[in-house]
């Protein structure tokens, strides 16, 4: 009882909260993807950057696979080409599959894993938590860039703070 | 001993790691600010968005004050105008002051605070951790937008992954 209480009060963010945090961001990211016109999603960019479809594919190469990697140590190969995804509907469907994957693998990630050394995708050294935070942050980063693309296209992006 | 061990292994991210994570992002943000040319920092924007100086001022209204708020419950008033900051050197100096403030207040934030209900700046309901994660995420979001501004200006932004 004593030890449980200490563990509970000593937690900065617990596992349920971290999943809610991650999925909350994904709701915003999905809305941003949905806001893009089909053509511009695959063709528009600023300053020589990648298109938002390409940025989304990078997210899709990391998200579900990170949940699986943390749960099973199977990271698979890092594939951000995803040449099979050629329409907005494809990207949205793939994004939803990743969300489901995250929700399914989450329960199999042990609390200890967050503090273990991991080599994500066989090449990125980190700690469980640092890898996960990195891929969430990377998604926020690229989604923020997508907001500029949307604004440049005259489209109002989703509210950043509506993570529910 | 038993209870200490449980608390240690049950942690997703510990307090030192969270500070390192936050300060790591701030190093990247500082480099992004530094990369802007003086004039464009205050004048350039895309699609009717705020300038990067304005986005930086929003960050500066939240960062050090959040550390102080979590440490002391004194959130002060939310001021994102900061009309006194009129040059890049001003913004960089203010950013460095905030970093110092974060480092100084960090030790005074109790572990319990991260799970307490807080009303940030007298108006934003949340939990200690959620408010802190929000302002870090908000900085990543706007910095990502700054990267597009830099690319549009023909300037290579700092590497996102060099958070040290």
Detailed description of the structure:
Chains A, B: GO terms for molecular function: metal ion binding. Chains A, B: It comes from Algoriphagus antarcticus. Chains A, B: Belongs to the DinB family. The structure is a homodimer of 164-residue chains. By secondary structure, the first copy, chain A, is mainly α. Chain A has a single domain, classed as Four Helix Bundle (Hemerythrin (Met), subunit A) (Up-down Bundle), CATH 1.20.120.450. Chain A is 61% helix and 5% strand. Chain A is built from 6 helices and 2 strands. Chain A has a two-stranded antiparallel sheet with strand order 1-2. In chain A, strand 1 and strand 2 form a beta hairpin. In chain A, helix 2 packs parallel to helix 6. The first copy, chain A, is globular and about 45 Å long. The N terminus of chain A is likely disordered. The interface between A and B is large, with 47 and 48 residues.
């Amino acid at each position: 009882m004593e030890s449980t209480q200490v563990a509970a009060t000593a937690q900065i963010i617990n596992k349920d909260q971290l999943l809610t945090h991650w999925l909350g961001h994904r709701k915003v990211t999905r809305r941003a993807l949905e806001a893009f016109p089909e053509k511009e999603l695959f063709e528009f960019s600023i300053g020589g950057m990648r298109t938002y479809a390409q940025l989304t594919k990078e997210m899709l190469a990391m998200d579900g696979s990170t949940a699986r990697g943390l749960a099973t140590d199977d990271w698979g190969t890092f594939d951000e080409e995803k040449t099979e995804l050629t329409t907005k509907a494809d990207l949205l469907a793939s994004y939803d599959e990743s969300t489901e994957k995250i929700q399914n693998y989450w329960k199999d990630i042990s609390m200890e894993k967050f503090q273990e050394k991991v080599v994500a995708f066989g090449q990125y050294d980190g700690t469980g938590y640092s890898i996960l935070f990195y891929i969430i942050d990377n998604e926020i980063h690229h989604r923020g860039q997508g907001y500029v693309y949307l604004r440049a296209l005259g489209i109002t992006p989703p509210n950043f703070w509506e993570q529910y």
